[in-house]
UniProtKB/TrEMBL annotation:
This is UDP-glucose 6-dehydrogenase. It comes from Pseudobacteroides cellulosolvens ATCC 35603 = DSM 2933. InterPro entries: 6-PGluconate_DH-like_C_sf, NAD(P)-bd_dom_sf, UDP-Glc/GDP-Man, UDP-Glc/GDP-Man_DH_C, UDP-Glc/GDP-Man_DH_C_sf, UDP-Glc/GDP-Man_DH_dimer, UDP-Glc/GDP-Man_DH_N, UDPglc_DH_bac. Residues 306-411 form the UDP-glucose/GDP-mannose dehydrogenase C-terminal domain. Signal peptide: none annotated. Belongs to the UDP-glucose/GDP-mannose dehydrogenase family.
Length: 430
């Protein structure tokens, strides 16, 4: 396998067996494949296309100005098309980037045909989405649930199929190009919608009182129509993990993909009401936590608030669209003094936050953040935060209030220790 990147520093680091992103297990895997001579990196796209059977396009597709930005796809496809003009051997161009339905069979196809001077059939076209979670990407790659291959014809399908066949237990699902694109969007939009659904139920339960949304949702997910394995595994609330209450979804995928599907759909003349609600609930959820804190503590002006977690989820240093950023901005707007802490995401967060504000300090040690704080908000359930014992909150903080944005602490234990506890999906009792 030949990896191509325009950035020479990335190419050099990969060839030096250095993983360029934080991802558990990636460093070891990279060392193994490079040592076996199975992977190399280059900035020379021509060399890579000429010496391979498939070009997998995995460039970013950011969302901006109300629609998905295809500029990286377009420039990469154009460069590949120019090389295909000279290449006599059959070659498949496979899109792995998340793109809206019709992108591969209209945009990518027409660029390749125009630039290469060849027709689809002379070269192959495929769309092969990925379903990897950040922080679990290696695990998900090795043990996928399904492999979806969209292909323009049998020949291109067979070439891409050979990459996977025999290596994985998961079913290989053959579909057309736009179905493959739609499967990816539908998958992310469903998971995002489950999260917003859980958070909406949480808000209803908070207003009702005497009912815990977490207990409600755990019970709902035991329905075997929902999860056929329930009978064998008894009670396992993790099974439908996207129905957990929290502070909302973040990351580089869910927000971007739901917004892209909304804008794609609107472009086709259909207003997707459920997806719009998914987004609006998600935007309100972090602000709701700050409002609940304010209700408990009173005016936030000059209060010291510890924010536990900056990454959009544990096991990553990625802060893109993290609920923590919304919470911090809202706290700063309300004139609080914010001490935010994360084991690995501080540098990335510093690039996204107003670091000139005296009221904001980013730290890696939670004990420093909690020192004399009036309240703490748990945003990212890093194990080291989840394990903070009640006595530490009590001894470090000033009349502690704990806002549990992920419902990881035991309310009774915290309250017995003298902490005012505010939990997502539970009414305020303090
Ligand atoms: C997501 C999908 O899960 C992957 O299948 C997909 O391949 C990937 O997007 C992608 O399109 O590339 P990822 O963004 O890495 O993966 O993260 P998730 O673990 O799915 O979590 C996304 C967000 O949802 C996080 O902010 C997480 O805290 C939040 N979440 C998750 C909840 O708020 N509640 C839950 O119950 C589960």
């Amino acid at each position: 396998m030949i990896c191509v990147d325009k950035r020479e520093d990335i190419v050099r680091r990969i060839n030096n067996r250095e993983a360029t992103i934080y991802e558990p297990g990636l460093q070891v895997l990279l060392e193994q494949v490079i040592d076996k001579g199975k992977l190399s990196a280059t900035s020379d796209l021509r060399h890579a296309v000429m010496n391979s059977d498939v070009s997998i396009i995995a460039v970013g597709t950011p969302f901006g100005d109300g629609r998905i930005d295809l500029s990286y796809i377009i420039s990469c496809t154009t460069e590949i098309g120019e090389i295909l003009r000279e290449k006599s051997k059959y070659h498949v161009v496979c899109v792995k980037s998340t793109v809206a339905p019709t992108t591969t069979d209209i945009v990518v196809k027409s660029i390749l045909e125009t630039v290469s001077g060849k027709k689809v059939g002379e070269f192959g076209l495929s769309m092969n989405p990925e379903f990897l979670r950040e922080g679990k990407a290696v695990e998900d790659f090795i043990n996928p649930d399904r492999i979806v291959i969209g292909a323009s014809d049998n020949k291109s399908f067979n070439v891409v199929n050979r990459i996977y066949k025999g290596y994985f237990k998961a079913p290989i699902i053959r579909v057309n190009l736009r179905t493959a694109e739609m499967i990816k969007y539908t998958s992310n939009a469903l998971l995002a919608t489950l999260i917003s659904y859980a958070n909406e139920i949480a808000s209803i339960c908070e207003e009702t009182g005497g009912v815990d949304a977490r207990e409600v949702l755990e019970s709902v997910t035991l329905d075997k129509r929902f999860n056929p394995k329930v009978g064998k595994h008894l009670i396992n609330p993790e099974m439908v993990s996207y129905l957990r209450v929290g502070c909302g979804f973040g990351g580089s995928c869910f927000p971007k993909d739901v917004k892209a599907l909304i804008s794609f759909s609107a472009g086709k003349g259909y207003e997707p009401q459920m997806l719009e609600s998914t987004m609006s609930i998600n935007e309100t959820q972090p602000v709701r936590l700050v409002n609940r804190l304010e209700k408990t503590i009173g005016d936030l002006d000059d209060k010291k608030i510890a924010v536990l977690g900056l990454a959009f989820k544990p096991d990553t240093d990625d802060v893109r669209e993290s609920p923590a950023l919304i919470i911090i901005r809202e706290l700063l707007r309300k004139k609080a003094k914010v001490f935010a802490v994360d084991p690995i995401a501080v540098n990335n967060a510093a690039m996204m936050l107003p670091m000139d504000a005296d009221e904001l300090v980013l730290l890696t040690d939670y004990k420093v953040a909690l020192q004399n704080a009036n309240a703490a908000i748990l945003v990212t359930s890093w194990p080291e935060f989840v394990c903070i014992p009640s006595y530490e909150f009590v001894s470090l903080m000033n009349k502690p209030i704990l806002v549990d944005g992920r419902r990881v602490y035991d309310k009774k234990t915290m309250e017995n220790a003298g902490i005012s506890y505010v939990g997502v999906g539970l009414e305020d009792t303090g």
